[in-house]
Design goal:
Elements lengths: L14 H25 L10 E5 L12 H7 L1 E5 L9 H6 L2 H33 L21
Antiparallel strand pairs: 1-2
Helix pairs in contact: 1-4
């Protein structure tokens, strides 16, 4: 959104304030999408489906507008199912072993792509809003997570 005049700051969110709320909501929704992918019991074969991230960039909201209303206006949607199939656990069990492995492989690609999108979005959020001081040290914990085995 365009910047606003200083005298409008009492009644309108600044673009930076607005974008922090939007960015945070995108991260929260991508976390939910990532978890949904990991908790899906039957591997899917979603080829070419996409993720849309959107918000109203034409204006900044009034300070009187509730934050929850702003968050509800953010869009994180999956779309474009032309070459995809929705698989159920029953249908998955009816597939041959090779077909099951194929679905597992493609579902892994899709879930990994969602995780990469989440990671990039989260890093951008943290880098912009997470610290007001210069970083001196960062701790990273890496966990081995494989949704296809125990």
């Amino acid at each position: 959104p365009e910047d606003i005049a200083d005298e409008q700051l009492a009644s309108m969110l600044s673009p930076a304030e607005y974008l922090e709320i939007v960015h945070n909501e995108v991260v929260c929704r991508l976390i939910q999408l990532s978890l949904a992918c990991r908790l899906t019991l039957a591997p899917q074969k979603w080829i070419g489906s996409s993720v849309a991230l959107g918000f109203d960039c034409g204006r900044v909201p009034a300070r009187s507008q509730p934050e929850e209303e702003i968050r509800r206006s953010v869009r994180v949607n999956i779309f474009d199912w032309g070459r995809s199939e929705l698989n159920t656990m029953q249908r998955h069990m009816d597939l041959t072993v090779a077909e099951q492995q194929d679905r597992a492989q493609f579902w892994g690609y899709y879930a990994d792509g969602i995780d990469r999108l989440l990671h990039g979005t989260l890093c951008a959020y943290w880098g912009r809003y997470g610290s007001t001081a210069k970083w001196k040290q960062v701790e990273v914990y890496v966990y081995d997570f494989d949704s296809m085995t125990d």
